[in-house]
């Protein structure tokens, strides 16, 4: 299922390792695209602020009006175009973010399915360590009881005359 989500040529045979590698590369490219879109979004926000606020640049542009069209109408149209483009970019970013999260979850799931033997080995190692710890504790308790018995016997038994 992960193979169907990554860009590749149809009919191309891919091993599980190749699918995971391409998935990692695709996620990396999505992150780069996200960074690029965020930078572009920031630039567009600055651009909108320049044209929507009463900045010195805007006042100079209005002062230089030579009667060719209305600068307010042109700026309003351009601002509206920018708003639409920002909405589209935000939607695209949200879509890519959700795809990335879905891909990351699928990678985790695939890793769990691909390496169940490794998980079994780790579980067996943990179980063995727990058993060894139990044996060590039992042995330590036995030694402590023997020491207590020796101490009690030596206290009760008077020394032999020599």
TrEMBL record:
The keyword Nucleus is annotated on this UniProt entry: yes
PROSITE patterns, sorted: BHLH (PS50888)
By its UniProt entry, which Pfam families does this protein fall under? HLH
A molecular function (GO) term:
DNA-binding transcription factor activity, RNA polymerase II-specific
Q: Which domain of life is it from?
A: Eukaryota
Where, by residue number, does the polypeptide cross the bilayer?
Answer: none
Q: Where in the cell is it found?
A: Nucleus
- Start and end of every BHLH domain? 1-30
Spell out the coiled coil positions from the record: 79-148
Q: Which UniProt keywords apply?
A: Coiled coil, DNA-binding, Nucleus, Transcription, Transcription regulation
Any one GO CC term of the record:
nucleus
Question: Where is region (Disordered) located?
Answer: 49-77
Q: Which PANTHER family did the record assign?
A: BASIC HELIX-LOOP-HELIX ZIP TRANSCRIPTION FACTOR (PTHR15741), TRANSCRIPTION FACTOR AP-4 (PTHR15741:SF27)
Instruction: Output this protein's name.
Output: TFAP4 factor
Q: Where does this protein come from, organism-wise? A: Alca torda
**Gene designation:** Tfap4
């Amino acid at each position: 299922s992960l193979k169907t989500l990554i860009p590749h040529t149809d009919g191309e045979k891919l091993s599980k390792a190749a699918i995971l590698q391409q998935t990692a590369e695709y996620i990396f490219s999505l992150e780069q695209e996200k960074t690029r879109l965020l930078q572009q979004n920031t630039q567009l926000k600055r651009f909108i602020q320049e044209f929507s606020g009463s900045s010195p640049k805007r006042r100079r542009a209005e002062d230089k009006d030579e009667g060719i069209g209305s600068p307010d109408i042109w700026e309003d149209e351009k601002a509206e175009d920018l708003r639409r483009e920002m909405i589209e970019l935000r939607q695209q970013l949200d879509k890519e973010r959700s795809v990335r999260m879905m891909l990351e979850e699928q990678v985790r799931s695939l890793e769990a399915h691909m390496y169940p033997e490794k998980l079994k080995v780790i579980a067996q190692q943990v179980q063995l360590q727990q058993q060894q710890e139990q044996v060590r504790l039992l042995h330590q308790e036995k030694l402590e009881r023997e020491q207590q018995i020796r101490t009690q016997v030596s206290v009760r038994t008077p020394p032999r005359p020599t």
